[in-house]
Specification:
single chain, mainly alpha, two-stranded antiparallel ribbon, disordered C terminus
Length: about 180
């Protein structure tokens, strides 16, 4: 009995740490939100299968964004600011993605401490629940994120990386 209680206590303390990387949103609701993003983005796996969206190329492919170094998708031209974000060591997780997608230009200016930082993505997801839901959707269609520093930058181009999940009304994309 004592062992069971101890095991339960340890498990309950560990649960938040284990769930830390789990998306906070609802992937099914995120699929609906992604309709706003598909004007500029697609989620296409390595085999070339389109998992979500259309064949939009304005913004980067969002497949594998979780754990990817910002501004690092090969063959996509990111803004210099987004490349600098990746060079700073930022990898896309829910926190960084949320900040970026909520207000791309403001996020880059704050993260880079540079008032001249720019992005090609002008679309903003204003509702926090929409941001969390679209992140959960992207995570649900992506391979597991690399552990730790395994997410080394791939060939960086020149435009906006992940965060750029958008396209709806403020349309001008460039995320990854």
């Amino acid at each position: 009995m004592r062992f069971t209680l101890t095991a339960l206590a340890v498990a309950s303390l560990a649960a938040p740490a284990l769930a830390q990387d789990a998306p906070t949103g609802d992937a099914e609701a995120g699929a609906k939100v992604f309709n706003q993003c598909q004007t500029c983005h697609v989620i296409e796996n390595e085999a070339g299968e389109v998992l979500a969206g259309k064949t939009a190329k304005t913004g980067p492919n969002l497949y594998g964004v979780p754990g990817r170094v910002a501004g690092s998708l090969p063959d996509f031209k990111y803004s210099k600011s987004l490349v600098a974000l990746g060079e700073k060591g930022v990898t896309w997780d829910e926190e960084h993605f949320s900040g970026f997608v909520h207000d791309p230009a403001k996020y880059l200016k704050e993260e880079l401490d540079d008032e001249k930082a720019t992005t090609k993505m002008s679309f903003k997801l204003k509702k926090p629940e929409d941001v969390a839901n679209v992140w959960a959707f992207i995570v649900s269609l992506s391979p597991p994120a690399p552990a730790g520093d395994a997410a080394a930058p791939a060939a960086a181009g020149t435009e906006t990386e992940t965060g750029d999940t958008g396209s709806g009304s403020d349309s001008s994309s460039g995320s990854d």
